[in-house]
Amino acid sequence: MANEEDDPVVQEIDVYLAKSLAEKLYLFQYPVRPASMTYDDIPHLSAKIKPKQQKVELEMAIDTLNPNYCRSKGEQIALNVDGACADESSTYSSKLMDKQTFCSSQSTSNTARYAAALYRQGELHLTPLHGILQLRPSFSYLDKADAKHREREAANEAGDSSQDEAEEDVKQITVRFSRPESEQARQRRVQSYEFLQKKHAEEPWVHLHYYGLRDSRSEHERQYLLCQGSSGVENTELVKSPSEYLMMLMPPSPEEEKDKPVAPSNVLSMAQLRTLPLADQIKILMKNVKVMPFANLMSLLGPSIDSVAVLRGIQKVAMLVQGNWVVKSDILYPKDSSSPHSGVPAEVLCRGRDFVMWKFTQSRWVVRKEVAAVTKLCTEDVKDFLEHMAVVRINKGWEFILPYDGEFIKKHPDVVQRQHMLWSGIQAKLEKVYNLVKETLPKKPDGQSGPAGLVSGDQRVQVARSKAQQNHALLERELQRRKEQVRASTVLPGVRIKEEPVSEEGEEEEEQEAEDEEPMDTSLGGGLHSRLANGLPGGRAAGGDSFNGHPPPGCAGTPVARELRAFVEATFQRQFVLTLSELKRLFNLHLASLPPGHTLFSGISDRMLQDTVLAAGCKQILVPGPYIVVSSEEEKTSDVYTRMLRSREQEETRLTGLSLILFLLLDVRLWTFPPQTAASPDEQKVFALWESGDMSDQHRQVLLEIFSKNYRVRRNMIQSRLTQECGEDLSKQEVDKVLKDCCVSYGGMWYLKGTVQS
């Protein structure tokens, strides 16, 4: 209180806020001119402004009659700038430097706290400033003089060269097409100095009229600095509470958001990151880090985050490689982007990066040249892939950047199995796109867990040699067994062969004996559909037994069997003909879309999958392969060879049953065409949905019967057979529908799906 009494209030002044010139008032500063030497009395020749940039240019006259002015120097400058010939475009029309230009620069970009004050009759009137500009002399005329000098030199050189040379030499030029601009390149170009200068130059100048300090128009404009009217209607912004007034004086954020420095694109603010949803946090972290162990990801997200939710989110944006998570390719290369090096679209880049990731699931090491040879991508793109997830080792190749995380593998087996299924689907897609051959890798012993090691060439040769020896021994034993069976039976005309029952069930034995009462058909082409149903004798097929045997009784009602049956039925309703390898690929993709812990992750064998297919109403189609027979001169007298030679004209012969055994006994050489796929024989089995409940069932059944006798057929043969079996002429649309459901066309011939390489 004592301090307040010692400092009494001397005078109270009313403050008014004038807004008439709020958007037009600028403060000009002349930092290179003393305050005592103003430009008020100097004539202003012209003025212009760029409002958006707040850029001003003023032209002021120079007193050429002043004794301090050097006239000869002024004439020399005018001559250098404009040359000897003066015209309308000349800078100095009087051939004397009689004016100078002032250019402005912004003193500050934030003028919210600055105002111009006018005190009159005990009242203080404030007008906010729109801009604060500093004006300095411009020396652009010197640049114009240099340009004139270079033009004169170029003209002189051109005149001399035209006299020496009669004609110009033909020059070779190189035409280059610009690559598509990526998003990052566009952002760099927009932020470049050249782009900003070009953008500033595009804004047009607005020409102004200058009025002196003591001009009547200036006096009139100065009246707008006073608040118009004393009713206080326009001064409501100054009627504030003490707290609001302090908030206006000291706002909470001292700098505007646009003035904050922009962080680099590779720098993350953890405070801002944790304000986002969990899925976005995981995506941003993986996109920036590229490769990360699960433990590190949990530590970055914080201890309060549920690990199950993180596992669910990480599988949407990353793939498991050697126990670590690697960001998916489509996250780094969005759909409409392209390579900044080669301009390759994002789809090709994603496929090449997936191949690199898949190679690291097989081995710790990858060779860059091998990747480039397979993917056909440029060196820079392949190097980018490898730098995301590997480090280079001299004379060794690229090693995966993180060690094998066995702890995560043991702790989350369901996630590991799901990722394995997903990688199997990706591998099948890569094999089809890049025509890869499955490499024989040594299997790990049971219970061994660890990173896949390098397989040397000697090891691969040893494995291949041992497998070839095993296959050779099996083939020899099978041939000997068949020869002994044929010798014991001594096949003669009229002799009937009784087949041993395969199943122990009584009903199947009775059907087998009833079947034995009929003579065996040894013809090469006919009798397949009447004698075999689904590749088996009619009795077994009627009994419902599958080609490889059903699962044990009671298994059909388990949740696993029901889920598998539902998948098989839904798949064959969409695609009527499938090979076992294609069905396995679709099943792996289906597993990858299921949540962790699903019942189908318990393990589905190939046999169980085949049995489920057959139990769902599908049948295996035994498509014959193309055979070419080569025999010695002595064997050409045999009756079997004569029938074989007659069928040789069709270039396709189906060998079944006893005919095949007789050819083996006669040592007739059978040569087949090269295999169309690298899949195993079981995976090449073709299954077809026999009845789907629509109007085309009969047409598809006739088509499948045709392909049980021929591995390729012409369209006219299919159409005639359909017309014969159905008793009516089918339209082109109906035939096209059946062919599209079951077949593919290649070289003018139609093949059953899965029997030729796509």
From TrEMBL:
Cellular component annotations (GO), alphabetically ordered: RNA polymerase III complex
InterPro entries: RNA_pol_III_Rpc5, RPC5_C
Pfam families in UniProt: RPC5, RPC5_C
Ranges where the record places region Disordered: 146-171, 441-469, 492-556
Acidic residues bias locations: 502-520
UniProt domain DNA-directed RNA polymerase III subunit RPC5 C-terminal: residue ranges: 443-637, 672-758
Keywords: DNA-directed RNA polymerase, Transcription
Comp. bias intervals (Basic and acidic residues): 146-155
One GO term (biological process): tRNA transcription by RNA polymerase III
Full protein name: DNA-directed RNA polymerase III subunit RPC5 isoform X1
Organism: Acinonyx jubatus (Cheetah)
